[in-house]
Amino acid sequence: MHGPAQAGWLLVALCAATGAYCLLRMRSTVEEQRRTAGGEALMGFGMAVMALPAAVITPPRWLWLAYAAVFTAALLHALWSSLSSTHHIHHVLGSFAMAYMSVAMSATPAAHAHHGGAGVPALTGALLVYFTGFVLWSGTRLAPAGTGTGKGATGGGGAGGTAVALSWGDRAELALACRLSMGIGMVAMLLTL
């Protein structure tokens, strides 16, 4: 994605940090956390590389096609996993969006940030609607449960709460924050497509 350089670097940092945390989640004692963390780490690092500003690197067409192949494989894995869990449907859409953006970039790598007045394609618009909705929904889930209580998404979990006993990989609110940041990144990338 080749938008303004500062925004691109911020997006790279956000996505790389999210990918790194997802790698930490792979050490979780909760099987479901481990299962989804690998795909989310791939998504975070993939988004970080894709968001590099054009001044740093303009990837050749074959690299975008390789990206499309990697995320198509991730899409197929997510489709298979979605048979057992509805949570994986979000991974299906994320992998599809990454493969879609890779194919779009391979078709017009030098001019992908300029639509030439053609408007937003319907598929891009549909993905934007989904990820914008996901970001808003995730944000409301992270908001404090009640005003003035000082309790977050875990229902308290302060210094004396049970949330402190959980490892960093098992913190549901941190996993949701990662998904939220990747959703924000996806919206930003789709807007520049």
What does this protein look like?
By secondary structure, the protein is mainly α. It has one domain (5-192). The chain is 64% helix and 0% strand. It is built from 6 helices and no strands. Helix 1 packs antiparallel against helix 2, helix 2 (31-50) packs parallel to helix 6 (172-192) and helix 5 packs antiparallel against helix 6. The radius of gyration is 18 Å and the shape is globular. The N and C termini lie close together (7 Å). Mean pLDDT is 79; it is low at 111-118 and 147-164.
Defining key terms:
193 residues; mainly alpha; 64% helix; 0% strand; globular
Secondary structure layout:
Elements: H1 5-25, H2 31-50, H3 61-81, H4 88-107, H5 122-142, H6 172-192
Helix pairs in contact: 1-2, 1-6, 2-4, 2-6, 3-4, 5-6
Q: Rg to the nearest angstrom? A: 18 Å
First-to-last CA distance:
7 Å
**What low-confidence regions span 5 or more consecutive residues with pLDDT below 50?**
111-118, 147-164
Oligomer: single chain
Structural shape: globular
From the helix content, strand content and strand pairing, which structural class follows?
mainly alpha
Largest sheet, described in full? none
How confident is the prediction overall: mean pLDDT? 79
Number of E-state strands:
0
Share of helix, binned: 55-70%
Domain tally = 1
Q: Note the beta-strand portion.
A: under 5%
Report the order of strands and helices.
HHHHHH
Individual helix count: 6
Give a nutshell description of this structure.
With 193 residues, the protein is mainly alpha-helical. Helix content is 64%, strand content 0%.
